Structure prediction request, 370 residues.
Amino acid sequence: MHQQVRLFKTIDLINGYEGNISLHQYLKNWFKENKNAGSRDRKIYSALIFNYFRLKGANEVTNQLALVVQAAAVDAITQPLYEAWVTQVDAPISEIKVEKYFPCIEKISTEINRDELFAALKTQPAVFIRVKSAYLNEVKKELQDKDFTFTEIGAALKFIKNHALTEMDTFKHGDFEIQDIASQQTINLITPQKNEAWWDCCAGSGGKSLMLLAAQPQVQLFVSDIRKSIMENLRERFERSGIVNYNGFIVDLTNADALKRLPEFDGIIVDAPCSGSGTWTRTPEWLTFFTEEILNEHIQQQREIVSSICNKLKSGGQLIYLTCSVFKDENEDNVEWFIQNLPLKLAEHHYYQYSNVGGDTLFGARLIKQ
Prediction:
C-alpha cells in the first residue's frame, strides 16, 4: 500500500510542476512544506522525478504511469519500487522517440556528437573540481583520508558520488574549486598578459575570473553581473581564494548609458545568458519545457550584449564569447552575425563536449576588435 502511495504521489508532483522555476527549487519548496518527508523520501522522489524528465525529453507521453515505473529502474535507491510496480503496467518504450527527445533538435550544431549527448542526458552527471596545482597533493590526500572516490581526467578530478566537497578543509582554504571539466577547458581561449585590463562581464560566481587570475595574477580585473545575489556569491568565493584586488559591480549590459563610465579593456569575457542546452544533464526538465521562442529570445539578448560591450574593447583587444549551448544559432551563427555587424574578426572557435565522461558541453570563440 505504501508503495502505491509513493507511485501516485510521484505523479502528483510531476503534474504540479509547471517549469516556471527550476525542478530542483520546486522539489526543495515541496520538501520544506512537507517536513514529514524524511531524507530517504526526498532522495527517492528526487530520483524518480529527475529520471522521469531524463527519460521523457520533449516527447508527449500518454502512459505517464508506465514512464514513472521505468524511471524507478534507473537508480539503486528506487530499484525496489520498480520491482514492486513493474508487473502493473506496460512499458512506454514505443512512446519515446529519439527524433522527438530534444527540443529544437534540428538546430543542434553538426559539430556535436548527438549520440554521446543524448546518452549523457539519461544519466546522472558527474562532479568535477579544478585544483590549484601547488595544492594538488594536499587535496588528493584529504580526499583519500575521507575515502572520497575520484578519478583524474587531465588536470580535473572527477566524482561520481555526491561527496561533501564543500566541507573539506582544502575547499575552505581555497585550494580547489567545483567547476565542470568543459568549463575548465575554456581557459585555453583566454590569454591575458601582465598589466592588461580584463572584464568578466557576465561573471556569475566568478569561475572564469579565477581561472584568468590563475593564468595571469597581474591583471586589472573587473567583474560584473546583473544579479546582486550572484555578485555576493562571487565575493564570498573570491575571499575564500584570497582574491581582494578587483573591481566588482552590478550592471545591465544592454543599457549603454550604464557602461559609459567604464574604461576600455584589453580583453572581455562574456559567458552569455543562453539556453543552457549543454548542461541539461543537470536540469533535464528543460527537455520538456524549452521552446524555440525561448531560444530566439536568448539569441536576441546575446547580440544586444555583445554589441554593447564591444564598444568598451580596445582596438586589437580580445572578446571571449562563451555559451553552455549546443545550438548553432547561439554559437556559430551568432559569431557570424558578430563579424558581419561589429568590428570583430574571428580568431578561433571550439566546442568543448565532455558528455562521454559525465561533463557538460560548452562553446567558445575568441574574436579580435579591428
